[in-house]
């Protein structure tokens, strides 16, 4: 069982640009050179699964080799890597035909990640990973992308624009920036003429989320003001919240975007009240889907709006229903963030499988959201649309009637 200290450390590492914590969820193991499944294999268009769409020569049917590159022994990222691994294996167990899955321990130092990535591309047709931003950056900067790669993190960018991935790389990580941009679009559509007051602390992921929301909001021609709140050990400074209440626009409509975690957002609500609509990212939802209880309800967040994933919100979702939940010890509470990384593992495998089928473009109703992969001019692009949600009676529920 992870201690509270270990959980906090892993959480900080993930949101600061790596990823977040969970326990092992499946006992399935996959050998690196497993024998081909007895089922009918797929006809592959090209040996190396190049995404270029020129007419290829016929290649005899065979298994597609998918390499999963994760820092499984990392002190910081190990729990997160194990959650992703378990999700990938759960998806592979459900749809194994035609896929040989191998698991490669990447380490977490950028140079080691790059070395193991290069080994993985030599032995596999598709690579899933790396997991950390620094690892993805090392691969991209090396220019060694030779096979379709599904990165599990965003690459860093010096500009304010979303990162542009290399032609053979997709990103399916938990991007707080993407969630913030989607929240901005939602808020702009529903609040014509409103000013956005954007709240964050000095934590790196909160700064990134605040910036992404602000840029997207201003691109819609809207006015905004950013406010960095003083905090100590995760608790917001009371005086700064009282000042915020005084400074909220009184002569025109306003909304709040809280680039904060759930505990901090509750502190904002305690001072500001619920008269100003509050938007946020998945970090406003600390609940694992199976662990809701009357004691956990957060009635003070009533009406707060956020984006999250079906895995955290919709037990009756067609894709969510068919995959097992991670296994945790009887005395251990589920981690919402590790559940999200388990879900990322499921969808990463499903995307890899679809790429192996050589479809020109495809869409998936995934456990992490609606996924669309497009192939254009020898490159590929992935977009994930998160699920909108709102607090009702102290719990987070999906808003399914919105387009």
Automatic annotation (TrEMBL):
This protein's UniProt keywords: Membrane, Signal
Superkingdom of source: Bacteria
Entry-linked CDD domains: PBP1_YraM_LppC_lipoprotein-like
Classification via InterPro entries: LpoA, Peripla_BP_I
UniProt-listed SUPFAM superfamilies: Periplasmic binding protein-like I
GO CC terms of this entry: periplasmic side of cell outer membrane
GO molecular function, one term: enzyme regulator activity
One Gene Ontology biological process: peptidoglycan biosynthetic process
Residues in the signal sequence: 1-23
Protein name as catalogued: LppC lipoprotein
Organism per entry: Noviherbaspirillum saxi
